[in-house]
Amino acid sequence: MSSIFYCFAEYRSRVKSTVDFLPFYLGAGVITGLVSGLFGVGGGIVMIPVLTVSFRWLNINPEISMHMALGTSLAAIIVNSLFAVISHSKKKAIQWKFLLLATPGIATGSLAGAFLAADRTSKELGIVFIVFLFLFTLRLFFASKPQQKSPESSAKKIPSYLNIIMGFLIGLSSAFLGVGGGVFTSAWLLYLRYPVQHALATSSGAGLPVSIMGTAGFIWNGLEISDLPQYSLGFVYLPALLGLIVGGGPAAWAGAKLAHKIEQNLLKKIFGVFLLCMAVSMLYIKLNTP
Q: What secondary structure letter does DSSP report for 145?
């Protein structure tokens, strides 16, 4: 994904206003949409690095730039998750029983996570995000091999209350990091030994309550900030949001269809390599940002 940042660098001297960045936001939307549908994540792991760089070059206050990136990312994830859920539902790959149990906790945790993030500095949020990517990538590479049986017969049997508690933790962590919850949900379902396609498909469903409640929290906490950029709604930057959702929605639909045509172990390896690349990219940005 480093090519995205090289693209930004090449045209940096030409950027004079938000309008100049709209094509980049549109392109980033297509990439994040594919990621959302293919891997069951909301796309925040791609959007946040892109938004962070673009906000820096648009001279948005660095003290709130990470908050803006998180809020805008969550708002775009609403659309990505919706398209992905519709596509995965047609393949009957979503584990609705888990979502029904976990959604109340996910929604509550997401709102709490958004308020928690509002009290942190942009630097702190950036560091936490990078550590999270590295840790999750390691966990994914060393996770136990999923079973090739039906989803219900291969999954570990656990008490319902554990899924409820896990839902709250998924929502809290996801909103705090500005991601759709897919990475945490998929990690939990893979741990329970669900097939990869079902784990990733169900993760896209978890992205809806995370993104809706998280976005509400970031909007609310940003309304009283005095130096927000023009065309902002709280910590959501509307021009970037427009480009991301226009490109991301249809791409998420296509990515979800593609996910069901790839062998499980290969899909898992692709997902792990992708996350590792994003972690390295974010670390590079942080080390080269004053």
A: P
The set of residues, in sequence order, having a beta carbon less than 8 Å from that of 155 and lying 6+ positions away, is 192, 193, 194
Ordered DSSP codes for 183-249: HHHHHHHHHTT--HHHHHHHHHHHHHHHHHHHHHHHHHHHTT-TTPPTTEETTEEHHHHHHHHHHHH
Residue whose C-alpha is closest to residue 240's, from 63, 61, 50, 64:
50
Return the domain boundaries, the chain: 18-287
Q: Tell me the range of 22-26, 69-73, 88-92, 224-228 where mean pLDDT is highest.
A: 69-73
Exposed / middle / buried, residue 200 (Cβ in 10 Å: 0-12, 13-18, 19+): buried
pLDDT of 56-110, one tens digit each? 878 888 888 888 998 998 898 888 788 778 877 877 878 888 888 888 888 898 8
Q: How far is CA 67 from CA 44, 108, 123, 263, 286, in A?
A: 13, 20, 10, 37, 15
Cβ-contact 41, 182 below 8 angstroms: yes
Length in residues, the chain:
290
**Nearest residue to 222 via CA among 72, 50, 19:** 72
Quickly list H helices, 91-195.
96-118, 122-141, 151-154, 160-177, 182-191
Task: Say if strands 236-237 and 232-233 run parallel, antiparallel, or are unpaired.
Answer: antiparallel
CA 204, 4, 290, 57 torsion-angle sign:
negative
Give the Cα separation of 182 and 160 in Å (integer): 20
Residue 240's closest CA among 72, 60, 15? 72
